[in-house]
Amino acid sequence: MASSTHIPLPEQFPFDNSAYWDTSKSMFDRYCTVANVATDKVKVDCLLYAMGPRAEEIYNSFTWESENDKTVYPSVVRKFTDYFNGRTNTIYQRALFNRRMQKEGESIDDFITDLHKLAKYCNYGDTREKMIRDKLVVRVRDIRLSEKMQLQDNLNYKKALEMARSYETVLRQNRELHQEMTANATSINRVQSKGKKQSSEKSKTGGKSWKCYFCGGNKQHKRDSCPARKSECNKCSQIGHWSKVCKKGPKTGNSSLPNAKVNAVTDDSDYYFVGTVKENDESTQ
């Protein structure tokens, strides 16, 4: 069956990184499945085309037991595997693995996945899982988690991974709870602050509605901005307030002394004169 042309081929193989061969081969096998590439010859042709011109040169350098093996897909894959495994620098791959540490913001699962990918090309054999466990313990970012795992007896890979995942989950949940509590506390503080402000404003007016003693208005204002500041009271004739708030009675004349003479006295006088004057009498007091 012909391949489905609408499905793109995998990216070209990076020949500067021979360790990538296993991953590249797995990706191509998946492509053959979804694209319905069935026959060996078509698979070989698609593989060489997907890998690029350099793969064609390497393919032509292979020695075959029979001419038919050149078009048998498993045989071609085996040849490429031997070629790339012989070129893999194990020391370099192990250096990459040993240098790897958990990045800031990287989850435990992402860290473990990358450790597996790096360890795959280190030729650790049966010890690969133990090497990944050790790297998880000593290269995790959280020092407290690292110490907890180091204190565990008979810590295997599975238990180390479970501890790391559980620890990460608890940290995330605590962080979410803290954020929620902080948001609630902020909301409560805003309400309390508003209540205190209203209480303070109420205490300034004695707990009652505010009223000006000079004009009778209920809108707060300073004395120098009072509309009655320069007005004459119609009730007592004094300056500075209106009659509707006047506490005094109406102004009255002195009828008992119709012809009395009174010396005017001002606040600026140094001395004050106090006495009486009688009509048709020359004596004074």
From TrEMBL:
A GO MF term: zinc ion binding
Annotated segments matching region Disordered: 182-207
Start-end of Polar residues biased regions: 182-192
Domain CCHC-type: 211-228, 232-248
Protein name per the record: Uncharacterized protein LOC112460238
Gene symbol of the encoding locus: LOC112460238
